[in-house]
Amino acid sequence: MKIAIAQLNPIIGDLEGNAQQILDAANVAAIAGMRLLLTPELSLCGYPPRDLLMQSDFITRMSQTLEDLAQKIP
What we know:
The chain is mainly alpha-helical.
C-alpha cells in the first residue's frame, strides 16, 4: 500500500479553505497512485480551534464540510 503524507497549513476556522487544501492534496496523492492520505491533526478546522468548538453552528458546519469532502475525495 502506498501512503502519502500531506503537509498542510490550515487556517483556524476556515473550513472551506482547509477542505480545499485537503482535497487538493488527495487529488495529487491519487494521481501519484497513493491509496491513503494522512493529514495533520485538526486539519479541517485548524489548530487550535479553542472556543470555536463551543459554538454549535461551527460544529454543524464542520460536520457538513466533512461530509461534503468525503464525497469529493478520490
